[in-house]
Automatic annotation (TrEMBL):
Its EC number is 2.1.1.-, 3.1.3.-. Belongs to the damage-control phosphatase family. Sugar phosphate phosphatase III subfamily. The keyword Methyltransferase applies. SUPFAM superfamilies: AF1104-like. Subfamily III proteins have a conserved RTxK motif about 40-50 residues from the C-terminus; the threonine may be replaced by serine or cysteine. Metal-dependent phosphatase that shows phosphatase activity against several substrates, including fructose-1-phosphate and fructose-6-phosphate. Its preference for fructose-1-phosphate, a strong glycating agent that causes DNA damage rather than a canonical yeast metabolite, suggests a damage-control function in hexose phosphate metabolism. Has also been shown to have O-methyltransferase activity that methylates glutamate residues of target proteins to form gamma-glutamyl methyl ester residues. Possibly methylates PCNA, suggesting it is involved in the DNA damage response. The lineage of its organism: Eukaryota, Metazoa, Spiralia, Lophotrochozoa, Mollusca. Residues 20-407 form the Damage-control phosphatase ARMT1-like metal-binding domain. Keywords: Hydrolase, Manganese, Metal-binding, Methyltransferase, Nickel, Transferase. Pfam families: ARMT1-like_dom. Its cofactor is Mn(2+); Ni(2+). This is Sugar phosphate phosphatase.
Length: 433
């Protein structure tokens, strides 16, 4: 086997990694500090002096972190008592031994240091007593959801009509529905709050029209083999490794619903993050909040789905799973070796759907691949089950393109790799070492 390409890193000053670490991450950290500071009156009312002190400690921790990042200090060990501390600290040791110097923000692998930043933010919260369950991104995530209400309503009204037609046994083209809901979930990934450095990024256009208007922006379309695979194993277990809360989560829930209602799947296993991550990623709290909020509305479609989805959670056709591996800095080719229980769990699936950019980066190891490297090869042996990725491009890594395709798209849009306007549906049903 030929050697692997280098991991992406801010060492390359013309890279998106460099721009992210130099400009985007400090903005995200400042925004966290502002948001937390604005909670001071509420926290004082609810938790008195202890809360006020903890809030100050969080803001202090975030400012210190921003300073470490901007001055390219070494990565420090974690000092809270979360279950993953030992794994993080051991990895830091491993990296120091491997390279002969301690990792730092601008010298080490982008994937590692960016994940570390979110884990350090969590450290500041974990060290608290009364504020231990604070989600520093909660306000942004909830605002983005509420600002996407129009698009959510259109999608849920349409989905309700589809379900009712299916129940009436109307002759519906199931493959067409599958293609449509996969693409809605794909473009749901355009909206995320970390690419916009935490600034407003809600879904405002009609998600169904978008499927048509953005068709030519899908650079890899593996819908056909994906459909064939799902059809052959139907109805089986489908896993969805979630990405962002807000509009994107609703598109994922609708996809899950359609897979079950059309009997393409018998159960859905959603995978959420164990703590607030990359600004807008879904935690269990976000998942629950989304259902509660839909349930409080007076829209018929929202209420219809909340009842249906609560039923699915209690009869276990929907399952929500949380695992620390999703918030560790490892790529997925390391899963079998580092975390065999999750790998084994995923191997029970008929199809694993990985949502979003960060999952893609972890699938392909966040390396400087030639864009024509086959997707299966870039997975570097990761294949617990047939898998696909639904990803809007927001980082300068891509595999599976045809010869000349990268050049052609770059001529149309210089920012194609990072602006979220281009996407891929890549599927793999075999292991390639
Ligand atoms: O929510 P997604 O699609 O995983 O995107 C995560 C974002 O974080 C990054 O991975 C790095 O900031 C970007 O590449 C992307 O903007």
């Amino acid at each position: 086997m030929t050697s692997l390409p280098e991991p992406l890193s801010a060492k390359a000053t013309d890279s998106f990694a460099y721009y992210t670490i130099k400009d985007r991450l400090p903005v995200i950290l400042s925004k966290i500090a502002d948001t937390v500071y604005r909670l001071k009156n509420t926290v004082r009312e609810q938790h008195g002096e202890e809360g006020t002190k903890e809030l100050k400690d969080i803001v202090g921790g975030i400012s210190k972190l921003r300073n470490e990042l901007q001055t390219d200090k070494s990565i420090l060990t974690l000092e809270d008592d979360r279950s993953d501390v030992t794994t993080w600290n051991k990895y830091l040791e491993e990296q120091t031994t491997l390279h002969g110097y301690p990792p730092s923000w601008f010298k080490s692998a982008w994937l590692y240091v960016e994940c570390y930043m979110y884990r350090r933010v969590q450290e500041a919260v974990e060290k608290c007593n009364v504020l231990k369950s604070l989600d520093v991104f909660e306000e942004q995530k909830q605002k983005a959801f509420l600002n996407s209400q129009g698009a959510i309503l259109i999608l849920l009204n349409y989905s309700m009509k589809v379900i009712k037609d299916l129940e009436k046994e109307e002759e519906l083209d199931v493959e067409k529905l599958f293609r449509q809901f996969i693409q809605v979930a794909l473009w749901g990934n355009k909206c995320d709050l970390s690419i916009s450095a935490g600034f407003e990024n809600s879904q405002t256009s009609c998600p169904l029209d978008q499927v048509e208007t953005l068709k030519d922006h899908i650079l890899i379309d593996d819908l056909k083999p994906l459909w064939t695979c799902l059809r052959a194993s139907a109805p089986g277990r489908v896993d969805i490794v979630l990405d962002n809360a807000g509009f994107e989560l609703v598109t994922d829930l609708c996809l899950a619903e359609i897979l079950l209602s059309t009997k393409l799947a018998s159960s859905i296993h959603f995978h959420a993050k164990a703590f607030p991550w990359f600004v807008s990623d879904v935690t269990k709290q976000d998942f629950d909040w989304t259902l509660q909020t839909l349930g409080r509305s007076n829209s018929i479609a929202m209420n219809f789905f909340v009842q249906r989805w609560k039923g699915r959670l209690s009869n276990k056709s929907w399952n929500l799973q949380v695992h620390d591996y999703w918030t560790l800095p490892f790529d997925y080719s390391e899963m079998k070796m580092r975390c065999s229980d999750l790998h084994e769990e995923l191997s029970k699936s008929s199809l694993i759907v990985f949502k979003g950019d960060l999952n893609y980066r972890k699938l392909v190891g966040d390396r400087n691949w030639d864009t024509t490297t086959p997707f299966a090869e870039s997975l570097h042996g990761f294949h617990p089950a047939p898998l696909c990725t639904l990803r809007a491009l927001k980082a300068d890594v891509q595999t599976g393109l045809a010869e000349g395709q990268a050049k052609a798209v770059k001529e149309k849009d210089a920012e194609w790799m990072v602006n979220g306007n281009w996407a891929v549906i890549s599927f793999c049903d075999k292991t390639v070492q």
